[in-house]
């Protein structure tokens, strides 16, 4: 398909919009799951096409130029129109699939073992799961529901599913397992952590320990952390309610009887505003909340 000579590439506009929204190239890259250099390439291409800069580059920050502000308003209006049209089309079709964005670790360890129960009861509702580390933009129609982890997202139509119980864990044959008797003992060993997670900071501070003293190994995804724990590569932070199956099987073993529970380490359900009253959405949310009550 031939590209328009006047319309900028849609992907570059999306990257620009995310950079402006996140106020940073690296944050935009993390949200879109592309490298910072790829973000810079899209912005340069857009600025070259328009013949003017869209951002002012400061030493540690960026800001929109007048042209950038004008382009942001235009892209936001355009994306809003597309999202509204998609929402109208989806609402007119009661059989449209329910699209759920969620972390791969939540899908693998919690939802997939339970989803057959929903499908058996509601075979007429098609559920599409999108396990991803990227934050789906519900406002722009990328998903109908999202399940996220951490502190409460500052968005409308959000409710807590359940709070985690955080506790360091190792494999059954981890050489130092019997030597870990007090919280401070974990600081002598490699601490496995997933990027963007605050689990270790929360647990260490709750136990009066300094997170800067930890020997952290950063891994991309929490599922990889679980594999690293089971492989004996170090001590990982078990989200005990999420991985109760792996604990019950003995694949990973908590180091202490009690963990730390806080809203800062919780699972949250977010619904797109126009989707809240959709019959399929209401049925799925009701089922999900009932399942989460059993988790607590």
Automatic annotation (TrEMBL):
One Gene Ontology term from the biological process aspect of the record: DNA-templated transcription
HTH lysR-type domain ranges (all copies): 8-65
Gene3D superfamilies to which the protein is assigned, alphabetical: Periplasmic binding protein-like II (3.40.190.10), Winged helix-like DNA-binding domain superfamily/Winged helix DNA-binding domain (1.10.10.10)
Matching PROSITE patterns: HTH_LYSR
UniProt keyword Transmembrane present: no
InterPro entries given in the database record: LysR-type_TF_proteobact-type, LysR_HTH_N, LysR_subst-bd, WH-like_DNA-bd_sf, WH_DNA-bd_sf
Keywords: DNA-binding, Transcription, Transcription regulation
GO molecular function: DNA-binding transcription factor activity; sequence-specific DNA binding
Similarity comment: Belongs to the LysR transcriptional regulatory family.
The protein's name in its UniProt record: LysR family transcriptional regulator
């Amino acid at each position: 398909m031939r590209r328009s000579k006047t319309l900028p590439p849609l992907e570059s506009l999306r990257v620009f919009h995310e950079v402006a929204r996140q106020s940073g190239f690296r944050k935009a890259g993390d949200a879109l799951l592309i490298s910072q250099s790829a973000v810079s390439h899209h912005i340069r291409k857009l600025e070259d096409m328009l013949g003017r800069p869209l951002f002012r580059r400061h030493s540690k920050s960026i800001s929109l130029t007048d042209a950038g502000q004008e382009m942001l308003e235009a892209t936001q209006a355009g994306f809003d129109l597309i999202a509204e049209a998609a929402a109208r089309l989806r609402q007119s079709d009661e059989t449209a699939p329910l699209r759920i964005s969620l972390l791969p670790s939540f899908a693998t360890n919690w939802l997939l073992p339970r989803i057959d129960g929903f499908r058996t009861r509601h075979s007429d509702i098609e559920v599409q799961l999108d396990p991803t580390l990227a934050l789906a933009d519900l406002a722009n129609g990328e998903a109908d529901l999202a399940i996220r982890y951490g502190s409460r997202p500052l968005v409308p139509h959000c409710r807590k599913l359940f709070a985690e119980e955080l506790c360091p864990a190792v494999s059954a044959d981890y050489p130092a397992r019997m030597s870990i008797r007090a919280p401070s003992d974990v600081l002598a060993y490699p601490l496995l952590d997933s990027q963007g997670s605050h689990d270790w900071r929360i647990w260490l501070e709750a136990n009066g320990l300094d997170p800067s003293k930890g020997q952290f190994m950063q891994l991309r995804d929490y599922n990889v952390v679980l594999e690293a724990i089971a492989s004996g590569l170090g001590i990982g932070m078990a989200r005990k309610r999420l991985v109760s199956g792996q604990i019950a099987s003995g694949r990973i073993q908590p180091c202490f009887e009690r963990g730390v529970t806080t809203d800062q380490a919780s699972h949250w359900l977010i619904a797109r505003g126009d989707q809240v009253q959709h019959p399929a959405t209401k049925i799925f949310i009701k089922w999900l909340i009932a399942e989460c009550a059993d988790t607590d």
